[in-house]
Recover the amino acids of this structure.
């Protein structure tokens, strides 16, 4: 009986502790870690010291939302709060009295809010009021300004301007950057970052042999030109775009959007400027003389889930479609939680409900139906020529989608639900603008059946973001152009921040989904702005900006540090070392397929259905998963069929986004399910067997074979100690299989690819276990 | 900030150097990171330590199980009065549908006098353990959104499930098993795995599905050719190599990974042991109607007891096949036959093992069914089916902290609307959290700049059914 053993209990507790540690260390760093501590006797900094208090403790009742405002008091801006904060009035004293009152009836915030001020917060507010209660406009709503990179003492650590910002911050904290990473580490890091694949041993050797000045730069250039680049870089965008192969919700039936996914890969490989990348996806259909390619790009706006459950109310789910487009625009491009304003004025950011529905109006004019066809694409869709993606000029012309045709789903009975005609696998969903736009109203409390018909809303962008405009963008195309206006405060910052997040594990703004008032302040505000301006001034040239980041000393630092350094800055916000974190689940699978020489490099096309545990779809419905055979089993993970309600478990176990809604940031956990997946999942076991084959074919000497396999996985040679441990493990496995040869054959039978009959089974099986052991090394699954 | 980190190091050192037995909760308390404000201890003394959530996917008809409506029976097959349907949306039926009384007999049971139809004789036998909420209501009229609403307080997905909130709030008490386990009999229903997903909470709090066929936990079994001894030796070598790497890089994540592999190794033994019910007595197996090797609801009820016994905090059972738009007269009795005995057995078995006092059982579904008939034709005198109904339905609670025999809420003579004492799904969730020792207004998680709650900005603890 498990519970009776006290020792196991302690151990269990310890494991729980360890299971929780990453959450706490990584999530717990909080605001304090980034904002450098305010020195005693210095003045209050509104952004860092005061706004967070006001926002979390006061604004719910004294902020921008009119509906919940109490006592006609606003504390969210200088003008709004003037009457209580003017230094010569009685206001300030009253304010301090209220927050320090001992009488619960007087005390602010009231006890019912369950958000009491801490003593420290009261002190800060007192000092702030004493200093005249200065307000500051929220940084992210001001356009980024070109900043001059600061001068630093440690000039030897500077390769490009990025390093100046980083080193300055380190020097202020009396820290020094780490030395450069070993060259083996660096080529593995940058290969994983740009292509999602580890370098081959030949590539590692060539790089190590190349002692020329610009060897690294040429490496970066080569990787940026690799067709693997677009596949790898597409993944975060597919997560943000909630791309999937099914509709989601109850029935979760098939849709066909892989042509849009291919468009993304091609656009990234071609280094399409980011402004164009956005314009085409939001409004490619409205461009003058639009091509079919540009029309297909707008699939971005159609990737939301579509409900097709019998008994649904089409009006209701049509609203959900549009809401999803607006919310995705908010999270993926603006870095704002605009969705909050669907039901009430935003509690923290300057965004009213009316403004939310004015954004809604841009996306509300698609000739669509709120309920899907229950298998197949939902109108509007266009036919994809067989020649895709090699379109002729004649083919590459935007099409007029076939008009919506409704039919009754049930002839006599029921509520008469109507469904649209389905598009087959030769079609792709696109955006289309109705000739007469739908009327858009504010929906009271966000309810589809409560439009406020007193006012028809015209499309417009939130005043706080669009103040630089003379007149509002009138339609979706103008909206897209507004997003990439040089004066836009958010688009470029959000984009460079996501690049940074991808390379370093955490963005300069940690909350990459929220640059609003409740988001985290940037760790390096000046660097963020400098990069944003740089991106725009380089004509939104993504590869060039990425190269700049990757060429910096900051990126090239070693990730080895003392435990104390990891303790002091667990998320590496100060960037005193290089990035080190477990790989993305797609990279993990692709890397292991590559090390086993199993990876199939075909780009694009219909989704693949690799190995899945039997009957797994049965948990949801009677649809069965028809597993592919042959090459389709070994395609890159971005091509894996994505069923929203039951995504591939070997990906989900490693924190992949579920693709239900837009996601731009996921936590990285460390769980026993991950260990089980890597040890036992057929993909990884088969890859181990194939790696073992490579090892044994490389050398008949055990030690050499193991050294080779180790290098394939982590790009460096094992230390003598490591080599000896692995050799000893191999010997013990071999001896065991000697006693038990049938089991050796069993192990070698895992996976569809044929085993190498020329290899002696006992040694082959033992080597397979060694390969699996090495694949489970922390180093093998970590970018470092 | 530096101070906080020192505290954490001390905690770690402390734990590594002491051999006293902490329960997981105490440990979790110890770990509470003040900078994160994450609740890890109950806000007050909990009355229940475990939850077994029995979700009948598809929505059982409360009007044929618990709600006796003589008026409805009397007016069976009459057109529905317009004032009753005014302002309501139904999923399938039109507003001209006829009233549909229950064809089954009802009787009062136990000292409390709860009403049950003849379809639930076994549950009626433990009537005094059960507290009814007869006027529950929700917001969604379709399965997937309503299921998400019930479990996450939001009908569109992306939010943490109830179980994740609880695991996040309280941590885990067991040592070799996940804290939040899901068991299915039949398909999970429309919302799929999102019903036990963590949403924006860290994914360590996700529910783990234990399966009756194949690997009980996905990827649990070692590949063919491995033995437990061989796996052990592999992990020993792995731990040494990872340990060296940990020293070289300084990243504490590696130490965590080593421990996760140990946990995985122990799960490879503990989970199959748990899932194997052959060691249960014949009497117990008969009590539930369970038999080894089946993926039945009865087996799952027995497994739920075994999980709770081992300290698992939260067990969710999803049983499908309750969406009776048609054929209700045949299919509902069938579903009742499959579930009535196991549920009653679960209550009795927990009670005799002194586990019921610590275990909250929740029975219910995403919504109820209409008093209006669906399907059939005007000549048809039978019931045929009932449509989705979100405005008034029944769920029940039993066990830890629940006042058995209590009843709260009443619907009108037709069962269409709440007559008094309505309970919203948010109220239900607030109540369950309360029983677990948590204030639903204080169990929050900051995401996208906002403090989120399971109950959004709503929820009232239904103290009327508590001890």
């Amino acid at each position: 009986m498990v519970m009776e053993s006290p020792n196991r209990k302690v151990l269990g507790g310890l494991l729980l502790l360890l299971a929780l540690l990453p959450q706490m260390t990584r999530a717990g760093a909080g605001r304090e870690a980034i904002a450098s501590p305010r020195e005693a006797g210095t003045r209050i900094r509104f952004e860092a010291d005061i706004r967070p208090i006001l926002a979390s403790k006061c604004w719910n009742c004294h902020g921008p939302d009119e509906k919940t405002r109490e006592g006609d008091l606003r504390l969210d801006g200088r003008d709004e709060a003037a009457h209580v904060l003017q230094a010569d009035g009685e206001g300030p004293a009253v304010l301090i009295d209220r927050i320090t009152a001992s009488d619960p009836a007087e005390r602010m915030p009231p006890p019912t809010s369950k958000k009491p001020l801490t003593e420290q917060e009261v002190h800060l507010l007192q000092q702030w009021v004493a200093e005249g209660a200065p307000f500051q406009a929220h940084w992210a709503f001001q356009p980024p300004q070109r900043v001059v990179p600061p001068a630093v003492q440690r000039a030897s650590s500077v390769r490009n301007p990025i390093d100046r910002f980083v080193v300055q911050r380190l020097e202020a904290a009396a820290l020094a950057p780490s030395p450069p990473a070993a060259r083996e580490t660096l080529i593995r890091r940058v290969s994983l970052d740009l292509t999602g694949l580890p370098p081959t041993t030949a590539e590692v050797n060539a790089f190590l042999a190349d002692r020329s000045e610009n060897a690294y730069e040429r490496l970066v250039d080569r990787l940026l030109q690799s067709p693997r680049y677009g596949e790898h870089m597409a993944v975060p965008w597919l997560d943000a775009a909630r791309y999937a192969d099914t509709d989601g919700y109850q029935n979760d039936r098939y849709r066909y959007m892989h042509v849009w996914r291919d468009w993304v890969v091609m656009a990234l490989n071609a280094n399409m400027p980011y402004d164009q990348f956005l314009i085409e996806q939001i409004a490619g259909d409205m461009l003058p003389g639009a091509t079919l390619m540009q029309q297909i790009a707008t699939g971005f706006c159609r990737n939301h889930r579509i409900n097709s459950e019998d008994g649904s109310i089409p009006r209701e789910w049509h609203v959900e479609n549009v809401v999803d487009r607006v919310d995705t625009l908010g999270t993926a491009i603006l870095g704002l939680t605009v969705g909050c304003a669907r039901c009430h004025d935003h509690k923290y950011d300057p965004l009213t409900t009316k403004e939310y529905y004015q954004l809604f109006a841009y996306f509300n004019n698609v000739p669509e139906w709120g309920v899907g066809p229950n298998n197949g694409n939902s109108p509007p869709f266009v036919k994809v020529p067989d020649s895709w993606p090699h379109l002729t000029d004649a083919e590459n012309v935007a099409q007029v989608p076939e008009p919506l045709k409704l039919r009754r789903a049930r002839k006599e009975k029921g509520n008469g639900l109507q469904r649209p005609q389905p598009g087959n696998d030769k079609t792709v969903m696109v955006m289309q603008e109705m000739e007469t736009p739908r009327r858009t109203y504010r929906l009271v409390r966000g309810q589809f059946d409560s439009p406020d018909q007193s006012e028809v809303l015209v499309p417009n962008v939130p005043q706080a973001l669009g103040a630089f405009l003379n007149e509002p963008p009138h339609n979706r195309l103008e909206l897209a152009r507004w997003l990439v206006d040089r004066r836009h405060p958010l688009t470029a910052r959000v984009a460079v921040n996501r690049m940074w997040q991808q390379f370093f594990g955490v963005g300069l703004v940690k909350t990459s989904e929220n640059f609003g008032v409740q988001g985290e302040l940037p760790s390096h505000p000046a660097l963020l702005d400098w990069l944003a301006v740089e991106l725009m001034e380089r004509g939104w040239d993504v590869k060039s900006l990425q190269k700049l980041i990757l060429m910096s000393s900051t990126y090239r630092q070693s990730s080895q540090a003392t435990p104390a350094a990891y303790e002091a800055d667990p998320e590496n916000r100060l960037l005193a070392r290089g990035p080190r974190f477990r790989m993305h689940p797609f990279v993990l699978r692709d890397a292991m397929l590559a090390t086993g020489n199993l990876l199939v490099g075909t780009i694009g096309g219909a989704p693949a259905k690799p190995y899945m545990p039997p009957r797994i779809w049965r948990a949801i419905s009677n649809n069965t998963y028809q597993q592919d055979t042959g090459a389709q089993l070994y395609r890159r993970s971005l091509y894996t069929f994505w069923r929203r309600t039951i995504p591939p478990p070997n990906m989900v176990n490693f924190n992949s986004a579920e693709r239900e809604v837009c996601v731009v940031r996921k936590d990285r956990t460390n769980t026993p399910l991950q260990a089980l997946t890597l040890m036992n999942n057929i993909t990884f076991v088969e890859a181990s067997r194939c790696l073992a084959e490579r090892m044994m074919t490389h050398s008949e000497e055990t030690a050499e074979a193991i050294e080779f396999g180790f290098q394939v996985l982590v790009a460096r040679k094992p230390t003598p100690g490591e080599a000896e441990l692995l050799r000893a493990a191999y010997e013990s496995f071999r001896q065991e299989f000697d006693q038990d040869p049938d089991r050796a054959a069993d192990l070698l039978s895992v996976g569809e690819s044929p085993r190498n009959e020329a290899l002696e089974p006992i040694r082959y099986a033992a080597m397979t276990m060694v390969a699996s052991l090495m694949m489970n090394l922390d180093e093998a699954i970590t970018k470092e | 900030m530096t101070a906080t980190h020192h505290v954490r190091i001390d905690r770690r050192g402390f734990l590594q150097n002491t051999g006293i037995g902490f329960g997981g909760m105490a440990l979790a308390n110890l770990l509470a990171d003040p900078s994160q404000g994450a609740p890890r201890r109950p806000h007050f003394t909990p009355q229940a330590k475990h939850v077994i959530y029995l979700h009948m996917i598809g929505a059982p008809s409360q009007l044929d199980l618990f709600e006796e409506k003589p008026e409805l029976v009397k007016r069976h097959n009459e057109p529905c009065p317009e004032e009753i349907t005014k302002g309501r949306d139904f999923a399938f039926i039109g507003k001209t549908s006829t009233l549909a009384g229950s064809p089954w007999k009802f009787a009062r049971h136990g000292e409390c006098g709860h009403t049950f139809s003849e379809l639930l004789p076994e549950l009626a036998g433990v009537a005094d353990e059960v507290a009814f909420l007869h006027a529950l209501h929700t917001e969604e009229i379709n399965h997937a959104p309503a299921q998400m609403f019930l479990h996450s307080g939001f009908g569109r997905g992306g939010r943490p499930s109830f179980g994740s909130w609880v695991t996040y709030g309280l941590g885990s008490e067991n040592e070799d098993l996940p804290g939040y386990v899901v068991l299915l009999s039949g398909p999970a229903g429309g919302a799929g795995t999102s019903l036990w997903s963590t949403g924006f909470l860290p994914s360590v709090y996700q529910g783990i599905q234990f399966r009756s066929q194949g690997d009980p936990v996905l990827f649990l079994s070692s590949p063919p050719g491995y033995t437990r001894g061989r796996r052990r030796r592999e992990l020993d070598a792995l731990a040494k190599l990872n340990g060296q790497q940990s020293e070289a890089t300084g990243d504490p994540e590696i130490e965590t990974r080593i421990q996760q592999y140990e946990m995985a190794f122990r799960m490879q033994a503990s989970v199959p042991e748990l899932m194997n019910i052959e060691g249960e007595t014949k009497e117990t197996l008969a009590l539930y109607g369970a038999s080894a090797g089946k993926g039945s609801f009865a087996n799952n009820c027995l497994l739920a007891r075994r999980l709770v016994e081992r300290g698992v905090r939260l067990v969710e059972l999803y049983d499908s096949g309750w969406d009776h738009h048609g054929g209700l007269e045949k299919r509902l009795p069938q579903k009742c036959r499959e579930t009535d005995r196991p549920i009653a057995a679960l209550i009795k078995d927990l009670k005799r093992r002194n586990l019921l006092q610590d275990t909250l059982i929740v029975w219910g579904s995403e919504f109820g069914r209409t008093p209006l008939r669906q399907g059939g034709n005007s000549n048809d005198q039978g019931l045929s089916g009932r449509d989705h109904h979100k405005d008034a339905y029944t769920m029940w609670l039993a066990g830890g902290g629940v006042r058995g025999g209590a009843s709260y809420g009443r619907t009108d003579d037709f069962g269409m609307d709440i007559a008094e004492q309505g309970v919203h799904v948010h109220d239900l969730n607030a109540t369950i959290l309360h029983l677990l020792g948590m204030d639903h207004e204080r169990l929050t998680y900051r995401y996208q700049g906002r403090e989120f709650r399971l109950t959004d900005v709503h929820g009232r603890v239904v103290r009327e059914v508590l001890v």
The first strand of chain A starts at residue 381 and ends at 383.
